[in-house]
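REVIEWER CHECKLIST
Item 1: Sequence provided? yes
Item 2: Single chain? yes
Item 3: Sequence as submitted:
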Amino acid sequence: MILQPHGGVLQDLVLRDAGIKQRLINEIASEGYKKYILTDRQLCDLELILNGGFSPLTGFLNEDDYNSVVNHMRLASVKNEEGRGLLWPIPITLDVDESFAKTVKVGEKLVLTDLRDDNSLALLTIESIYKPNKQLEAEKVFRGDPEHPAVKYLFNTAGDIYIGGSIQGLSFPKHYDYVEIRTNPTELREQFQKAGWNTGNHKTVAFQTRNPMHRAHRELTIRAAKDLGEDGHILIHPVVGLTKPGDIDHHTRVKVYKQILKKFPENLANLSLLPLAMRMGGDKEALWHALIRQNYGVDHFIVGRDHAGPGKNSQGVDFYGPYDAQDLLDSVKDELPITIVPFRMVTYLPEEDRYAPIDTIDLKTTKTANISGTELRQKLRDGSEIPEWFSYPEVVQILRSTNPPRKQQGFVIIFNNGKGLKQSDYISFGFQSVLNELNSNRRITKLVDNNDPFIINELVKAGSGVLVLSSNIDEITTTVGASNSVVVNVDEKEDKENHFNLNSNERDFSEFIATVIDYLRKQDFL
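Item 4: Structure as written out by the authors:
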């Protein structure tokens, strides 16, 4: 039997409200309700509210639920059989700026629209308008490190006021890519039922990923399915919403997943895309992921080392411990119908040409081989061979097409004009001349009145050398990637490898330009 959704009811709001959709559309037209254009993250959140992926939620958290989730990891408005608040570890909030918040009142209705096409997706009835304690949210939910991606988002991007309320569904956000595998919980449950998965002795284990998959991932998921018995199945359920800045784009990854799916035994694995905006919240995010998979109809979920962790901060310290996620999930296992499957790391045995779980071999006497993520990126960067035991040739070909060798990659030089000093402008002309002289196959583009990170990133991805005057350093380097960015500061001390400081009294820039050019050569751009 397929597991019940979290809270007992799959809250597919579009399906629920299909019978009153036209009435809602007419009401919106006649009443002239205020519209709110959703951000990228809010759009991902709304889609999972609408399709039931976030069951039991039926809207964005009101103040009582928000405070309960932040402080206790539980909802205030929905109780379990023991009368305790239902588990929910991540606050799902509609953040707006103060100026917008002043234009709406509790009891009013708000039309939530898609930023891409202005399509009306849902009607929200406002239940509360509140100012959150962001510092408390950062500490309680994400442990408070200011370098954590979710904490940065909270303080640098999110609005200062939250609006909570229930939602009536109109339509899902429109997708034009990979439509056939963007299955929502209702559809996936129907697929499982039709295929006989999760019925009788059949069980399904979900594998979460935001990275490309290689041979080791195939091995570990097949082993996880076999551990469930001869009727075990695999749901490859990658995130294609928002992930960690700098991650490989979802188009490249989906092409990889489609190729690697062909390498599984027939009828063992299925691929479905999850439009989730990750927070990189470690242990609490792992619990969130498990609840989402339960809503999608899965009864087992693989949780690995440092699940959903963002890695290390600038001091080299991990944001989360390697087993924090597994420990948290174990502490609430009595409330989880879904079974957690600890990730068993596998390694390649070159003398036997096979993979094996690392905990089943004697590392002192057995020769093993592995390629780390850093080593893989280096091999892609310099065009060196990636062995077939590590990844399939079809996968490597896809990765090479979107990750060319460094000499073919673009870069951006950001001239920090935050202090309004003319040196930033003057020196950019010098760089433009020198780079044009040195490059015969690379276009050098100087942006004059445009420092949009998206446009800059598109130019860099196309292989251009981009020169831009901007004070928007962090957003540009985050979007483009620090490894493809150089920052020129004036009268500032920076100890980062890709930051260079120019003295404002300098009048001859030749030596300074030569220093930066030498850095670009060492990075294999020139």
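Item 5: Key structural point noted by reviewer: The chain has 18 helices and 20 strands.
Item 6: Recommendation: ____
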